[in-house]
Amino acid sequence: MNNFAKVSVVKCLNLFNDVEKALKLIDAEKAINRSEKILIKPNYIIAEGPDYVHVTDPRIIKALIIWLKNLGVDDIIIAEGGLSTDTADRAFKITGLTKTAKEYGVKLVNLNKDKFVKVRISDSYDLREVNIAKTVLEADCIINVPKLKIHHIAGVTLCAKNLMGCIWPKGIMHINIHEKLADLASIVRPCINIVDGSIGSEGNEISGDPVKMDLIIAGLDIVATDTISCIVMGVDPRKAKFLQLMSKKGLGTCDLNKIKVLGENLMEVTRNFRLAYGFEDWRLKEPLDNLLGQKQP
Hints:
Number of domains: 1
Number of helices: 11
Distance between the termini: 14 Å
Low-confidence stretches: none
Structural class: alpha/beta
CATH architecture: 3-Layer(aba) Sandwich
CATH topology: Rossmann fold
Strand content: 15-25%
CATH class: Alpha Beta
Radius of gyration: 17 Å
Largest sheet: 10 strands, mixed
Shape: globular
Order of helices and strands: EHEHEHHEEEHEEEHHEEHHEHH
């Protein structure tokens, strides 16, 4: 069991309780030191209200804050960049996180307005240097909270893709995006990843159609978490080149024989999301029981 990367897949009956359940299954509390600075990185690529189809449900963020507070953590930051300069500010307001932050003594940071530090990446695939928000670099632990979505350039947008909110300019990533995502993940390394799969987005990341999934997917291993999240959307993770590249860098595993899924049976919760144009060959065609090669819970 210790040799497996654990990924929890939990049905959402009550978001507050189920976030804690998903974290408990992967022993996430062991990744937290209460004296450290914890940064929560949601996905607010746009400012959107209920039903939060394309953005992280703020109830998950609130549940994380309460979980951290119960562990004795005091220094908590919610930080995001977004599509434009003021997107994060508008998103914090429309989602109610401005009020939540004030209630729990949490700091909000618009990363697009932050100071940036130019970081050079040695042994990179393609991204030689990148400007990363100072707040991100100063955090002791990043809790990465992306949305379960299809993407028109990367194929999927999950944990690795969510890290793009930490840099400026973001457009530099769009050519050779898989190589660059792997390079960025070698610098910005979340200690916990929790994918909001309550409602997913198919076809596109900011205008796609909603897919009600009622799931939370969590893992300490960013590559393993993205791998299982792909499968949940009916996407063949072997087609997602960035996962293979991240694995080669030692950032995690995409080997399904080394991933232990805890909670729900994947064969009972997987849906075939509508893929973006040009990604039709990413559809998972192999039977899940053959692909996984392990007994599901």
